[in-house]
């Protein structure tokens, strides 16, 4: 055997050993993979059912003539198809996305919207809460750039909208792209627009923890694998985002778990950090037709990896390898479609809800008064809580996608009841002050925004001064 061939063989062996699956029986295993299934409630992913019905708690307000009249609300989403829907008579303007077809369908991407039903239902939730508000629908496509997002917000501003609602969450590969999207929302809020957005449904889909100097990263108790969907069979689209706060270098792997034989790598992201590589390469072995996607990167020092793959049904897990790690690194892993077996709910709010001045809405189970298990949370980012289920004539929305348009519609009702403009911070304080519960709720429960209570609070006056027909923050 010639020396050159031998060197190649040795190099391949080293590579295989370094990337062996972090499970029992593998070269890098430390403990067996724990058995058991995920007991967490799956997060809704913009589901729209056809049960019909109407939003509760707004009828009394509407009967008094408070209907959102004179208020313009902008709704941002992937795509809309208002024609023939319950929102048709409310639509004052409709901006289609560049990648949108005539039917409102768009190419499926990281946000995972199959069609326009989700965002049309979001608009319907606003319209049924504030039935006389004017709606401006701004479609941004499935995976908008910050520039496209800015153009949509500029279009809404040109139409003098007072409230903007975006019930979506964004998962760009590069975290700095998410920061730029968030900055668009921040600028709109700073210019006086009430910008309402979803905190996200990712409490069960995020892991945060310490890095390691070498080898596989531990997710929990020396467990080096983080199962998707708690080990249950899953399939279809998988979107994973890994980021960290140092110049260290970590690689992201997606494995398929097999009962017999080695677990194969089905997708990986192995960018070289700190300028070692000027391209981003994400390999999807599960879909050979789209096995490698290469995009240029002008930000080679950014600390991130990402995987977008389509996989057949099976059992899958995520692993993180410290190629050139650092014990001081803080890592964040997000799975936008499946839950993670080892999840950390704190600070699971995602863009653009992390923006300053942006109103982030979480979801509450109104039967118990407790935060919905999947709802993203953070002490500093979630401003108010809305109902986790909202019924409209277009269908039933669940999750923060339901809570967000209900809160935005309630803000439109308050704005129409006021004789003066109300600042965003005043509206947030009002909604918090008027949030309601009942005797069934536990001491750990949180109040839920309720339209009638919010309007009544807005109309109150103080002993020493008139509120001008509107709530004034003390």
Topology at a glance:
Blueprint lengths: L2 H16 L29 E2 L9 H5 L8 E6 L13 E5 L21 H13 L4 E6 L6 H13 L4 E4 L8 H16 L3 E5 L7 E5 L4 E2 L9 E2 L6 E11 L4 E9 L7 E5 L9 E6 L7 E5 L7 E21 L5 E6 L23 E7 L4 E2 L10 E6 L1 E4 L2 E4 L1 H18 L6 H11 L16 H8 L16
Parallel strand pairs: 2-4, 2-5, 3-4, 5-6, 6-17, 17-19
Antiparallel strand pairs: 1-21, 7-16, 8-15, 9-15, 10-15, 10-16, 11-12, 11-15, 12-13, 13-14, 17-18, 20-21
Helix pairs in contact: 3-6, 4-5, 6-8, 7-8
Family: Belongs to the peptidase S8 family.
InterPro entries: Peptidase_S8/S53_dom, Peptidase_S8/S53_dom_sf, Peptidase_S8_Ser-AS, Peptidase_S8_subtilisin-rel
Pfam families: Peptidase_S8
